[in-house]
Amino acid sequence: MSDIRTSSLGGIPFGNNAGRPTASTGQPYFNGETARLELYTSGGSWENIVQEVPGVASISGTYSQATDSGVITIYGTNFVSGAYATAIGSNGVQINAASTVYNSLVQLTATFTGLSNANEPYDIKVTNPSNLFGLIPDALYVNASPVWQTASGSLGTFNEQVSVSVSATATDSDSTIAYTLASGSTLPSGLTLNSSTGLISGTLPDISTDTTYNFTINASDGVNTIPRSFSITSRYLIVMEYLLVGGGGAGANGNGNTGGGGAGGLVYSSSYTVSPSTSLLVTVGLGGAQKADGPNLSGNAGNPSYFGSVIAAGGGGGVGWGDDLSTRGGGNGGGGGGENPGGTQTQTTLNSGVSGILQYGNNGGNSGAWSPPYFTGGGGGGAGAAGANGTGSGTANGGIGREYSITGTATYYAGGGGGGTEHQVNSNTPDSPGGLGGGGTGRGWASTSRGGNGTDGLGGGGGAGSYYSGGLAGGKGGNGVLIIAYPDTIPAITTIPGTLTYDQPTRAGYRVYRFTAGTGTITF
Description:
35% strand, six-stranded mixed beta sheet, mainly beta
């Protein structure tokens, strides 16, 4: 039932909703049911003349620095159609929302752009068309984007099939970062990305050519996602083993039971890598030259062999006997691997810093005593053992070498030369054998032959010369050798100069090159 009355104040009618009068535009009415003063508008409806103050209780949503935008839901009271939202920065600047959508009396949706985290936190203000407004302070923060600390581009170049550990990292002032590969990006097989730390780790795969892997990593704080592009280069390598032996030392001349020559120095490595198109110097060391017949002449030292920066020194020559009959005995054997003639073996500076198994050669044997039954020269030192010392009778063997199967056949390399045998007038004592690995034989008192030569291609030392007829020459040292072996899935060496003498032994699954003379640069 309608209830319309006339107010005593200015004649404004009042009543309930049903009691609103038929009116023309501009007619006022006090609605007691809603406790509002209303006005009949040109749109044909009664509107509240005085709006209530809107209240802002809370907000939800985030603002992304990366997209420079944010959709915020505002909760409160007394919102009306036409209300709009404003963000007020800590610098006092007010920025109206790009759009404000009226959802209900208690909810608005506002879209903001152009906010900076430099001016956070932002107050959120809602203003009704009546210009009455409500505000909630320090309500909105700009979610800062992750900032990459690792520069884009290459994260490094690494050999194939090696362990890799590199990081691509970012920072964020207000969030925890998660790292993921961007859509369509992949890491090299064997590598993984740690989503919490940005660490890329694992083992690079086997490849047949230099390979660069390109990929993109996203750094995300849950709101902002910042991509960055990186690469890792894997370098194709030729992995081979090698054996390098220097030239053996020559044995000493006779006219006394003299020392045998030492073996060439030996360097072996089961793993050595080079990149394709790499060029390396190769020199096969010559054995110590044989001297002319004559008494009491020490043998010539052998020459070093080279493979790139790797050096195997030459063996020392054997030593002739002494001239002082009260003290002299047989000559000392040469030390292996670059020892100066005679005596104790020491490492030479030529071999310092070389990787792999180093075998400089062992000591040459010392001479026998000058007393009946006279004396024997010392045997030359080998890669695997020292030469035998001379004795009052008998023989002095050269030290043995070391055995390797790099060619596909087990072979001894770098044996020392045998020393001169017992000095006894009108006797014919046995020869002193050289060590396994190419050491030459030392000769006895009545022999008419010179000392045995060290074997070329094994780096053995020469044997001592005979005492017969005033001194016959000791044996020549054996030339050194370089042997390279690598899987036959890798192409052959592209360039080998004509001055290098080589053959290719058969070893299943491998390419093998055995260089026995010459010098030059080979290219893989």
